[in-house]
Amino acid sequence: MSRAGLVPLLMMHPWSWRAFAVGVLVVAASAALQGVCVLLGADLYFAAFLPGVFVVGILVGAPAAVFAILLSIVLVWWAFMPPFFEFSPLTIAYAHDINLFFLFSVLLIGLADLCRQTVAIIGRGDLNAGNENTAPHSR
Q1: For the chain, how many structural domains are there in total?
Q2: pLDDT in tens for each of the 139 residues of the chain?
Q3: What separation in angstroms does the CA of 86 have from each of 69, 103, 119, 123, 130?
Q4: Helices 17-39 and 62-79 sit at what angle, rounded to 10 degrees?
Q5: Distances (CA, A) of 85 to 19, 74, 78
Q6: d(CA 76, CA 98)
Q7: How far is C-alpha 130 from the chain's CA centre?
Q8: Does some domain include residue 130?
Q9: How many helical (H) and strand (E) elements, i.e. helices and strands, does the chain have?
Q10: Range of the domain at 116
């Protein structure tokens, strides 16, 4: 995808319904990939969802990425943690998996937000070496 193709998606308002729709679509794609991983025998419940959260964060912003985290947790608890396709009380191991996923996802959202802000700064042309507002250079 070219840079011109990503710019409209990166400029999407983070609180718009389109941003949340992108979040739902990415979580659905991650769930399909996770389903394939489960069929192949992998027990990593959130393996496909971490990259999905990062993609949502970098493309459409932090609010939709937080929504994707919450949707992913509910989806994994319901569909991928035994017993499948029903909510059951969480064991200690499952609760730890959810806590680690949440921690890593929050860190990824922070990184994605920094990348998104950097792209916005570069797109506006504010990153100029001759500008007085830039970091001081040695003389």
Answers
A1: 1
A2: 445 555 666 678 889 999 999 999 999 999 999 999 999 988 889 999 999 999 999 999 999 999 999 999 999 999 999 888 999 999 999 999 999 999 999 999 999 999 988 888 887 777 665 555 555 555 5
A3: 19, 25, 41, 46, 60
A4: 30
A5: 27, 11, 5
A6: 9
A7: 35
A8: no
A9: 5, 0
A10: 3-124
> Exposed (0-12), middle (13-18) or buried (19+): which is 106, by Cβ within 10 Å?
middle
Whether 134 is covered by a domain: the verdict is no
Q: In a 3-state reduction of DSSP, which class is residue 6?
A: helix
Angle at 119 between CA 14 and CA 10, to 5 degrees: 35
Q: Is residue 11 part of a domain?
A: yes
Residue 139 lies in a domain: no
DSSP element (H, E) containing 28: helix 17-39
3-state secondary structure of 126: coil
